[in-house]
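Here is an idea for our session: we take a single protein and study its fold together. To get us started, please write out a protein record for me. Start from the sequence, derive the backbone structure tokens from it, and show both lines together. Go ahead whenever you are ready, and we will take it from there:
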Amino acid sequence: MASMFSRIGKGWPLWVTLAVMWTLAVFTYGWMNLPRAQQLPHNPQFLSKLSHEAASILFGSDAQAQPARDALVWSQIPMVVRMPNGMRLKFPAPTTHEQAALVASEYHQLLDVEAGEQRGPYLLHMLAIWLAPFLLLVAGLAIKLVWRGYAPALGKMIPGGYSKSSIEKTAMSASATRKTGNRTDGDTLASSATHPVSLSY
């Protein structure tokens, strides 16, 4: 375990560089795609959430009434007004500037509310994307540590399997046997030299 963390520690500049680059990439992508009122596509349900006054202006229930003589009227021809998200709403004639501004303001507020509701799940999703590589790295290290801890036990359980420790013990035993044999042979030769064998004729 110590050697593993030692190898990881030696490459910490690379890990830090990769982590910073990944963080910048995820942050940039997340900021560019953050739900905003101007970027939300039109949803027909937005119009159903308008107030009664704004809905009556947009759908023409109030357009049948003639405006006051001093009121500013857009035109007798229906006008199309662009909303903050690019949606074009068609206002019936006659419609005043104040009436169109009221509808546009409420529509913009609905977009802000919808964008705020989408930001929470979106930020959690981006957080999961950012943490994914780090979690995989930690999981890989944990699996490696667990495998190193259980490998000797698995080697004993599997018939004919040898763990690393058993192989080392076998090698050490063989080395000790060779040394003992060499020592015995040397002693025999030394004894023969010291006490020559007498031959009788």
Summary: The chain has a mean pLDDT of 74.
